[in-house]
Design a protein that fits this description.
Blueprint lengths: L1 H34 L13 E3 L6 E3 H6 L15 H8 L5 E4 L17 H11 L6 E8 L2 E8 L10 H17 L3 E7 L7 H20 L4 E9 L13 E4 L10 H8 L10 H6 L5 E2 L5 H13 L1
Parallel strand pairs: 5-6, 6-7, 7-8, 8-9
Antiparallel strand pairs: 1-2, 3-4, 4-5
């Protein structure tokens, strides 16, 4: 195992050197922009600066990305999507996306503020996402793993029929290729526009995990901010290891709903990952900067 960890460190050093080269190229572009005349300058592009929602510290988006979207002042973990997690975790940011041809359908003709079908069309037009979960296979320190990750940008990362199907096909892929499975959750819960079709996924995904267990393959569940509702009531809490990012809100109903229901003040830090770790719901909390190495270590342990 020591030899494999040394190889991992060498690969990580190579990736950091590439990132530093990219950073230097970025600084050259900024310098070039400074040298232009006022008439040649354009308006500041959107997204050049980012303010931390926790401490209000303002930093450049480029620096925040380099710091893995963690606030350099207060260490707050900003919410990120599947693309960013894949870049952080997979070797050389290389991976193959699976089951990206599946799309949601308005089975019920559901309408709230707008028809569900129109809501889906708007999201597909504005983003590159096909649904609230992406599944990819790639290497972490040379060890192959299947990684499913949710995107909160797609209807709050809600659990619908497509997420359940992708999750299930990912389990089948792991069994066929004898690979470990990891899911990064970020969700508001079940997708109300799909009603019972959404709720059926709780049982479906839980049943698929029993097949993964029977095959003797590991399942790692990582909970990020926020993870609520049907996710925490099903596969979110069923990992061989349940881990989380620092400060993540995790639960079934939200703290405001619980407080209004029981008419009592909640304990400090209630439903934060640190609170859940203290009360035995999590195995450990992992900082985003250590995430890749921790996954590598876990895969080694499960394979030994």
């Amino acid at each position: 195992m020591k030899k494999e960890e040394e190889d991992f460190d060498a690969k990580l050093t190579g990736e950091k050197e590439k990132q530093e080269e990219a950073k230097q190229r970025w600084f050259k572009r900024i310098k070039k922009g400074i040298l232009t005349t006022t008439s040649e300058k354009k308006e500041t592009p959107e997204g050049l600066w980012t303010k931390c929602p926790e401490c209000n510290f303002i930093t450049t988006s480029a620096d925040l990305r380099e710091n893995l979207f963690v606030c350099p002042k207060c260490d707050h973990h900003h919410r990120i999507g599947s693309e960013e997690y894949y870049e952080i975790i997979f070797d050389n940011q290389e991976y193959e996306e699976l089951f990206d041809n599946i799309r949601s359908k308005d089975f019920l003709g559901f309408t709230d503020l707008k028809p569900y079908g129109k809501r889906l069309e708007d999201i597909w037009e504005k983003t590159d996402l096909t649904d609230s979960m992406r599944v990819a296979v790639g290497n972490v320190g040379g060890k192959e793993i299947v990684l499913a990750c949710m995107d909160f940008e797609f209807i709050g990362g809600s659990l619908g029929s497509v997420m359940g199907e992708k999750f299930s096909r990912a389990v089948d892929y792991c069994i066929e290729h004898r690979l470990p499975y990891m899911v990064i959750s970020k969700s508001g819960g079940a997708r109300m526009m799909e009603s019972a079709f959404s709720l059926m996924q709780l049982a479906k995904t839980s049943g698929k995990l029993s097949q993964l267990t029977d095959a003797g393959l590991p399942y790692i569940s990582m909970l990020t901010d926020p993870t609520f509702g049907g996710i925490s009531a099903s596969f979110g809490m069923l990992g061989d290891l349940n881990i989380a990012e620092p400060g993540a809100l995790i639960g079934f109903a939200g703290p405001r709903v619980i407080k209004e229901t029981i008419k009592k003040d909640l304990p400090p830090g209630f439903q934060r990952s640190e609170f859940l770790l203290e009360h035995g719901f999590l195995d450990f909390i992992v900082h985003r900067k250590e995430l890749k190495y921790k996954i590598f270590q876990l895969v080694l342990l499960f394979q030994s």
